[in-house]
C-alpha cells in the first residue's frame, strides 16, 4: 500500500502565480478583446543579450562535431563558468569565494527548495513576511511546519514582518532560529539591506550557529553604491551563509534557465553527536546524485554574460527595467498612491488605495484597467493591503498601464 | 543550532561514477601518455542530430527578438512538446497517455530522485540488484533505509537479484512492497523485460496498491519487436506505474539535458485516513513549486527529435551504438569471456574472467589495456564478479579497445 507525503495536503490551494494565471485566463476568456498588460509575475520581456545568443549558437554548433561534442558535464557546472563567476561576482567585490564553492544550477527556485534536502528535520525556520512563497511552500512539503491558519501562516515557522512600520527591514528575532531566509534586494517589497543590517544578521547567525539562506537574485538592480551585492561582503558570512544567484533577472534567462548557489567550504552544521559536518560536502553529494548539470549550451550563454560585450548588454537591460520602475513609482506617486521600493529593485511595492484588500485591488485593476499585478497577501499575511508591480515589461506597456491606473485611481477620479 | 540531514552520513563514500573518475584521473596523471579509452560511464559520444541543432539555433534566434522572446515557460513543459511525446511515444504504441500526463524535465536522474518527494516515509522500497545507484542513494538521503552492510546493502530495502541464475529477470517478491524500481532495457545488465514479465509486475502492484517506477531510458535500443517500449503497453499500468524517459541516450542529449516523466491522472496512493490522493496533483504541485521548466531552447531541440529528419537521425545514432554493442559482444565471446545484454541495450554485461572481483578487473583493464569500464559491484552486491562495458563510443575506439582486451584476456594469453 503506497502512501503519499501528507505534508503536501497542508499546502494552501494553488501556488500564487498559478492562481493569478487562473484568474487572468478566466478574465481573458470572458473578455477576449481586453488589452491585458501583465506586470504581475516577475518575468523579463526584453531580448536575450546578443553576446549570450552568439555563445549559445556556437555551443550548438560544437555539438555537431564529435571532436567538440559535449556529453555529461560536471554536475557542479563547468570550471570555466565557475571561475568567471567567482572572479567577477565575488573576488572583484572583495569576497573570498573560490570557484569550487559555486554550484551551477538550472534555477534559484530549484536551489532554494532543494537546499533543505541537506538539513535536519528539527531546525527552527525563519522567513520574512511578506516572502517569496517558494521558501514557505518547500518547508511545508518537507514537513517542517504545522497546518496553515486563516491568514495562510503555517504553524512552526517564525515570521519576521517587513513593512513600512519597520522601514522594510527584517527584524532580528528574540528567539533562537536555525535557518533564516533573507532576500535583498527584496522580492516582493523592493527593499534593500545595508551592510550594517546584514552584519547584524551575520552576527546573530554566528552566535546561534544558524545558517542564512541569502537570495541575491536581484543584486544587479542595486543603484546605491553603499549597498552590498553579496552577503559575503560581510565579514564572517563564509561561516554562516549560503547565497543564491541567478541569471534570470540580470541577463533575461527566465526562459533559458541558469543560476548558481554558493556554499563556502567553511560552512558547517551539526550532527546529533555534536560533530560538525561540512555543508559543502553534503550539497556536492546531493547535486552529484540528484542532478546532472546544466545544459552545456546554456552554460556557454551564461559565461558570455561576463564578456565585455555581455557586461555592457546586461547593464543596458537592467537600466531599461529600472527606468520602467522609476516611471511606475513617479506616476503612482503623482496619483496619490503610496509606493515603496523600485529604486534598487525591479519591484514597486504599492499600498493599495482606498483600503482595498490585495486581491480586491488585483481584481479591480484587472477588470477596470486590464493590468495584472501581484496581490501582496499572496506573499504572506503582512503583505495584505499591498500590491507588487513589476518593472519587467516594455516601455510602451509600462506607460500605457500607468496611464490607465492613474486615470482610474487618481484622487478625485476614484469611484 | 542548525543541524544536518544525517541520512547523508550513511552514504557509502563516493557515488560510483565520481569514484571511477577519481581512479582514472589518478592513472592518467601517473601515465600521461597512456591512450585511455572510456567505455565506463554511459555517456554518448556522437554529434547531436542535425534536426535538433537546427531547431535550437532557431530558438536562440527567437530569443533575440522581443516578439518571439520566451521568458518563464510552463513548469510542466510546453504543450507542443508534450503533445508530440504523447502521440509518438505512447498513443502510436497503443498506450492511453495524454499530453498533460507528461512532465518535461532536465533529466531522468533528477526525476527518479525527486519523485520520492511526493511519497510517504514508511513505504517499503524494492530495488533490483544490480541497480542504477541513484535509486538507492536517493532513498538513503530521504531516510528510507538503515545503514549499509559490508556489501553495500542498506537495511530496510528489499533487493531483488537479477543475475544469470534467474535469466536477468526481476523476481516478484513474496513479501509486500510499496514502491518498486524497474529499469528495462536494464542498466547495467542490458537485460530486457517481456510483456508477460511486466504484466506480472503490474498485477502484483495492483493487488498490493503498490507503485512501479519504470525507467525506460533505454527503450530506443529495443530491437526485438515483441518487447514493450513502455510499461503502459501493459493493461492496468495506468493505475500503478510512473514512467521515466529521456532524450539522453536516443538523441544524445546527455550534455543538452531533457527528459520527461509520465504520471497518469488515474494513479493514486493512500493518505493516513485511508483516502486516495491523486499522484498527478502532488507531482504537478511539486514541479510548480520546486522547478521552473526546461530551457525553451532545449525543449525546441527535443521537439525536433519527433520531426521526420529527427526520427531518421536518431535511428541512425541508435543503430551505430548497437553495432558497437555487437562488436563488443562478439569479440569478447570469441576471447572466451561470457557476456550478456547488448542486443536490446547499449550495455554489455561481462562475467569477469579468472574470477576477478569487479574492481580488480576494473584496475587490471585500466592498467593493462587502458580501457575504462564500470565495476558490476558498483551497481550492487549481486553485481560482484560482473563488469559493464558501454557501447557509447566511436567505432574506432570500440574496435581498438576490443583488440586490447582480447589480446590480454584470450584464454592462453592470460597471465
UniProtKB/TrEMBL annotation, chains A, B:
<feature type="binding site">
    <location>
        <position position="187"/>
    </location>
    <ligand>
        <name>substrate</name>
    </ligand>
</feature>
<dbReference type="Pfam" id="PF00155">
    <property type="entry name" value="Aminotran_1_2"/>
</dbReference>
<keyword id="KW-0663">Pyridoxal phosphate</keyword>
<feature type="binding site">
    <location>
        <position position="132"/>
    </location>
    <ligand>
        <name>pyridoxal 5'-phosphate</name>
    </ligand>
</feature>
<feature type="binding site">
    <location>
        <position position="388"/>
    </location>
    <ligand>
        <name>substrate</name>
    </ligand>
</feature>
<dbReference type="InterPro" id="IPR015424">
    <property type="entry name" value="PyrdxlP-dep_Trfase"/>
</dbReference>
<dbReference type="GO" id="GO:0010285">
    <property type="term" value="F:L,L-diaminopimelate aminotransferase activity"/>
</dbReference>
<feature type="binding site">
    <location>
        <position position="257"/>
    </location>
    <ligand>
        <name>pyridoxal 5'-phosphate</name>
    </ligand>
</feature>
<dbReference type="InterPro" id="IPR004839">
    <property type="entry name" value="Aminotransferase_I/II_large"/>
</dbReference>
<feature type="binding site">
    <location>
        <position position="292"/>
    </location>
    <ligand>
        <name>substrate</name>
    </ligand>
</feature>
<feature type="binding site">
    <location>
        <position position="132"/>
    </location>
    <ligand>
        <name>substrate</name>
    </ligand>
</feature>
<feature type="binding site">
    <location>
        <position position="15"/>
    </location>
    <ligand>
        <name>substrate</name>
    </ligand>
</feature>
<comment type="function">
    <text>Involved in the synthesis of meso-diaminopimelate (m-DAP or DL-DAP), required for both lysine and peptidoglycan biosynthesis. Catalyzes the direct conversion of tetrahydrodipicolinate to LL-diaminopimelate.</text>
</comment>
<comment type="similarity">
    <text>Belongs to the class-I pyridoxal-phosphate-dependent aminotransferase family. LL-diaminopimelate aminotransferase subfamily.</text>
</comment>
<dbReference type="InterPro" id="IPR019942">
    <property type="entry name" value="DapL/ALD1"/>
</dbReference>
<dbReference type="InterPro" id="IPR015421">
    <property type="entry name" value="PyrdxlP-dep_Trfase_major"/>
</dbReference>
<feature type="binding site">
    <location>
        <position position="42"/>
    </location>
    <ligand>
        <name>substrate</name>
    </ligand>
</feature>
<comment type="pathway">
    <text>Amino-acid biosynthesis; L-lysine biosynthesis via DAP pathway; LL-2,6-diaminopimelate from (S)-tetrahydrodipicolinate (aminotransferase route): step 1/1.</text>
</comment>
<feature type="binding site">
    <location>
        <begin position="246"/>
        <end position="248"/>
    </location>
    <ligand>
        <name>pyridoxal 5'-phosphate</name>
    </ligand>
</feature>
<keyword id="KW-0808">Transferase</keyword>
<feature type="modified residue" description="N6-(pyridoxal phosphate)lysine">
    <location>
        <position position="249"/>
    </location>
</feature>
<feature type="binding site">
    <location>
        <position position="292"/>
    </location>
    <ligand>
        <name>pyridoxal 5'-phosphate</name>
    </ligand>
</feature>
<dbReference type="InterPro" id="IPR015422">
    <property type="entry name" value="PyrdxlP-dep_Trfase_small"/>
</dbReference>
<feature type="domain" description="Aminotransferase class I/classII large">
    <location>
        <begin position="35"/>
        <end position="405"/>
    </location>
</feature>
<feature type="binding site">
    <location>
        <position position="187"/>
    </location>
    <ligand>
        <name>pyridoxal 5'-phosphate</name>
    </ligand>
</feature>
<feature type="binding site">
    <location>
        <position position="72"/>
    </location>
    <ligand>
        <name>pyridoxal 5'-phosphate</name>
    </ligand>
</feature>
<keyword id="KW-0032">Aminotransferase</keyword>
<protein>
    <recommendedName>
        <fullName>LL-diaminopimelate aminotransferase</fullName>
        <ecNumber>2.6.1.83</ecNumber>
    </recommendedName>
</protein>
<comment type="subunit">
    <text>Homodimer.</text>
</comment>
<feature type="binding site">
    <location>
        <position position="218"/>
    </location>
    <ligand>
        <name>pyridoxal 5'-phosphate</name>
    </ligand>
</feature>
<feature type="binding site">
    <location>
        <begin position="108"/>
        <end position="109"/>
    </location>
    <ligand>
        <name>pyridoxal 5'-phosphate</name>
    </ligand>
</feature>
<feature type="binding site">
    <location>
        <position position="109"/>
    </location>
    <ligand>
        <name>substrate</name>
    </ligand>
</feature>
Amino acid at each position: 500500500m503506497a502512501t503519499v507525503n501528507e505534508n503536501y495536503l497542508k499546502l494552501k490551494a494553488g501556488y500564487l502565480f498559478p492562481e493569478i494565471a487562473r484568474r487572468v485566463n478566466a478574465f481573458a476568456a470572458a473578455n477576449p478583446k481586453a488589452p491585458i498588460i501583465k506586470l504581475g509575475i516577475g518575468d523579463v520581456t526584453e531580448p536575450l543579450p546578443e553576446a549570450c545568443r552568439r555563445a549559445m549558437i556556437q555551443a550548438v554548433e560544437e555539438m555537431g562535431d564529435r571532436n567538440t561534442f559535449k556529453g555529461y558535464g560536471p554536475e557542479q557546472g563547468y570550471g570555466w563558468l565557475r571561475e568567471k563567476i567567482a572572479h567577477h561576482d565575488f573576488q572583484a567585490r572583495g569576497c573570498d569565494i573560490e570557484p569550487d564553492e559555486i554550484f551551477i544550477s538550472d534555477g534559484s527556485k530549484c536551489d532554494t527548495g532543494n537546499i533543505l534536502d541537506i538539513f535536519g528535520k528539527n531546525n527552527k525556520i525563519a522567513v520574512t513576511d511578506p516572502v517569496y512563497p517558494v521558501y514557505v511552500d518547500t518547508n511545508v512539503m518537507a514537513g517542517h511546519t504545522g497546518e496553515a491558519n486563516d491568514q495562510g501562516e503555517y504553524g512552526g515557522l517564525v515570521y519576521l514582518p517587513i513593512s513600512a512600520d519597520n522601514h522594510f527591514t527584517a527584524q532580528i528575532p528574540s528567539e533562537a532560529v536555525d535557518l533564516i531566509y533573507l532576500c535583498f534586494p527584496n522580492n516582493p517589497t523592493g527593499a534593500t539591506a545595508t551592510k550594517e543590517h546584514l552584519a547584524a544578521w551575520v552576527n546573530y547567525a554566528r552566535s546561534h550557529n544558524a545558517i542564512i539562506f541569502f537570495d541575491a537574485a536581484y543584486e544587479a538592480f542595486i543603484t546605491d553604491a553603499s549597498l552590498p551585492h553579496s552577503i559575503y561582503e560581510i565579514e564572517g558570512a563564509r561561516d554562516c551563509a549560503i547565497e543564491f544567484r541567478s541569471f534570470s533577472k540580470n541577463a533575461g534567462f527566465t526562459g533559458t534557465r541558469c543560476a548558481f548557489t554558493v556554499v563556502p567550504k567553511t560552512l558547517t552544521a551539526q550532527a546529533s553527536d555534536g560533530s560538525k559536518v561540512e555543508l559543502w560536502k553534503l550539497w556536492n553529494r546531493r547535486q552529484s546524485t540528484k542532478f546532472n548539470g546544466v545544459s552545456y549550451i546554456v552554460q556557454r550563454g551564461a559565461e558570455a554574460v561576463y564578456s565585455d560585450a555581455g557586461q555592457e548588454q546586461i547593464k543596458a537591460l537592467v537600466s531599461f527595467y529600472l527606468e520602467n520602475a522609476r516611471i511606475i513609482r513617479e506616476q503612482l506617486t503623482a496619483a496619490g498612491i503610496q509606493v515603496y521600493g523600485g529604486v534598487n529593485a525591479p519591484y514597486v511595492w504599492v499600498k493599495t488605495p482606498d483600503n482595498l484588500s490585495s486581491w480586491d485591488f488585483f481584481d479591480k485593476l484587472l477588470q477596470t484597467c486590464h493590468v495584472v499585478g501581484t496581490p501582496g497577501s499572496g506573499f504572506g499575511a503582512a503583505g495584505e493591503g499591498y500590491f507588487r508591480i513589476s518593472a519587467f515589461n516594455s516601455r510602451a506597456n509600462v506607460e500605457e498601464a500607468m496611464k490607465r491606473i492613474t486615470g482610474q485611481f487618481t484622487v478625485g477620479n476614484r469611484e
